């Protein structure tokens, strides 16, 4: 008779507040579809408790964990090693327990890049890019664009200091020619832009009508227009861009791909991307 084994491998997400974070659905769907005895736990961790939570995860042999707001920056000082891109971004969203050594990674920008290549058929090398926003998602995406050889980047952000800091980081530490411009009412997207990304939180559920203040008639049919907002997948921003003939890529794809990369880092196996996407699409009513 086969030996019994009721033990499960643990991963999860630490955040605050975290109750509405749906990523558990895509990971549990993936584990079920692959027949893995793994569990993904959604864990409320207050900022002052992050150190204890990491020690707990280490003690309980977690195979890894995700970090979401507000822990992506603070986690860096609690890890044994941080991947160079995550160090450059100054943020970690995925920790991998490599035989007791906690290694920090950032899969957000890589997830975006996979969506761009696999779902959009776009190679970032040599592309002229514009990004709206300069927060965590923008940092992750622009560092990856820089490392993948994008030609130029214009950062439009409301807060000048944040936008300038990101442009400086990219110019000083990567080969990308990045510049910041203040985001004035109804920003015009420069002619010749090939990839335009909304990396702000505008349009996130329940703000369904919200859209970034740009002159949508400056979006052309030669552009690939991407949104980081996963819910709803079809934002008003993407609908406006699509109506001008642009190719559009939603934030649901980015979310699923960043999760799929974490899955592969933790399990050593390729993720069942279609199952993961279907689980979230159902939840978002897409
Ligand atoms: P941050 O708080 O770090 O940054 C938010 C950004 O949005 C800032 O640049 C901020 O500008 C800008 N912003 C917010 N509101 C407005 C507004 N009304 N007008 C102009 N600019 C505005 O958040 P994150 O970067 O971590 O997250 C941003 C979004 O990305 C979230 O909605 C999140 O859900 C999504 N995300 C999606 C992922 C995916 O896999 N699909 C992964 C990670 C994040 P300012 O600096 O001027 O305040």
Q: How would you describe this structure to a colleague?
A:
The chain has 286 residues and is of the alpha/beta class. The protein folds into two domains: 9-106 and 253-284, 3-Layer(aba) Sandwich (Rossmann fold), CATH 3.40.50.10860; 109-249, Rossmann fold (3-Layer(aba) Sandwich), CATH 3.40.50. It contains nine helices and twelve strands. The chain has helices spanning 23-34, 50-59, 84-89, 108-119, 136-147, 160-173, 236-243, 251-267, 273-283; strands at 9-15, 38-44, 64-67, 81-82, 94-98, 101-105, 128-132, 152-157, 177-182, 195-198, 224-227, 247-249. A six-stranded mixed β-sheet has the order 2-1-3-5-6-4, with helices on both faces. α4 (108-119) packs across α5 (136-147) and α4 crosses α8. The longest helix is centred in the last third of the chain and has 17 residues, at 251-267. The termini are far apart. The mean pLDDT is 96. It binds NADPH dihydro-nicotinamide-adenine-dinucleotide phosphate. NADPH dihydro-nicotinamide-adenine-dinucleotide phosphate (NDP) binds at residues 108, 111, 133-138, 157-159, 162, 200-202, 204, 228-230, 251, 254-255, 258.
Give a brief outline of the structure.
With 286 residues, the protein is an alpha/beta fold. Helices cover 36% and strands 20% of the residues. The strands form two sheets. Strands 2-1-3-5-6-4 form a six-stranded mixed beta sheet, with helices on both faces.
């Amino acid at each position: 008779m086969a030996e019994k084994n009721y033990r499960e491998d643990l991963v999860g997400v630490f955040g605050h507040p975290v109750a509405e974070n749906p990523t558990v659905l895509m990971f549990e769907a993936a584990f079920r579809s692959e027949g893995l005895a793994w569990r993904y736990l959604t864990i409320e961790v207050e900022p002052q408790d992050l150190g204890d939570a990491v020690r707990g995860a280490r003690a309980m042999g977690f195979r890894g964990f995700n970090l979401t707001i507000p822990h992506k920056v603070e986690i860096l000082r609690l890890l044994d090693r941080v991947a160079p891109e995550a160090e450059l971004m100054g943020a970690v969203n995925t920790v991998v327990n490599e035989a007791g050594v906690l290694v920090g990674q950032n899969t957000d920008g890589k997830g975006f890049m996979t969506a761009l290549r696999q779902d959009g058929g776009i190679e970032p090398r040599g592309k002229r890019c514009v990004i709206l926003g300069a927060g965590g998602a923008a940092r992750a995406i622009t560092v990856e664009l820089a490392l993948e050889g994008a030609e130029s980047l214009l950062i439009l952000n409301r807060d000048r200091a944040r936008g300038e800091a990101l442009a400086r980081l990219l110019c000083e530490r990567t080969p990308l020619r990045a510049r910041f411009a203040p985001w004035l009412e109804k920003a015009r997207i420069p002619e010749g832009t090939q990839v335009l990304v909304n990396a702000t939180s505008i349009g996130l559920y329940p703000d369904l009508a919200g859209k970034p203040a740009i002159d949508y008639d400056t979006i052309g049919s030669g552009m690939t227009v991407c949104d980081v907002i996963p819910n709803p997948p079809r934002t008003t921003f993407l609908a406006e861009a699509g109506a001008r003939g642009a190719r559009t890529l939603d934030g649901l794809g980015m979310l699923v791909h960043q999760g799929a990369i974490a899955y592969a880092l933790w399990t050593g196996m390729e993720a069942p991307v279609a199952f993961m996407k279907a689980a979230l699409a159902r939840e978002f009513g897409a």
